[in-house]
Amino acid sequence: MNINFIAMGKIKEAWYRDACAEYLKRMGAFAQAKVFEPAPVDLPKEPSDAQIRKALEQEAARISECIRPGSYTVAMCIEGKTMSSEKLSEALAELGSRGISTVNFVVGSSFGLSEQFKKTADLRMSMSPMTFPHSLARVMLYEQVYRAFSIINNSKYHK
Q1: Residue 158 forms part of a structural domain
Q2: Which of 56, 2, 31 is nearest to 146 (CA)?
Q3: Which end of the chain is more exposed for a tag (fewer CB within 10 A), N or C?
């Protein structure tokens, strides 16, 4: 299976980049993982709602350029569905059994994802109702996808 992590912007902190790299390396035993980091739209210090909406629409277009037709897209958003590690592994296994070869996990910018993009996603998923720094959320997502594949493959990682 191909797993694409599409996240607006690059991770600035080295320790978060290192953690992401470690989980991507581990994931390589189970799936082909790629990272796409489109540039977020620059906004003024205190943007209006209209400026935010326009920026999110522009970012959605940049994200969409990374998504191949026929792939399955998961929009990461706070109002999305929460699921356990086991349920995520079941969902990925089920997608594979349906012949879906590519899954995209999409993380928006600091203002999230556009409503239109979220409507077109196959699934809206939330890590938690809590708010996390963008970089930490990415580490957590990579770890959970790695854990899901570990569960599918009966690895010792998940206990």
Answers
A1: no
A2: 31
A3: C
| Number of folded domains that form the chain | 1
Give pLDDT tens digits for 78-125: 999 999 999 999 999 999 999 999 999 999 998 999 999 999 999 999
Neighbour-count burial of 6, counting CB atoms closer than 10 A to its CB (0-12 exposed, 13-18 middle, 19+ buried): buried
Q: Look up the CATH number of the domain holding residue 136.
A: 3.40.1280.10
Q: The domain containing residue 103 runs over which residues? A: 2-152
Burial class (CB in 10 A: 0-12, 13-18, 19+), 147: buried
**What predicted TM-score, i.e. pTM, was given to this entire model?**
0.95
**Residue 159 included in any domain:** no
Q: Is residue 50 part of a domain?
A: yes
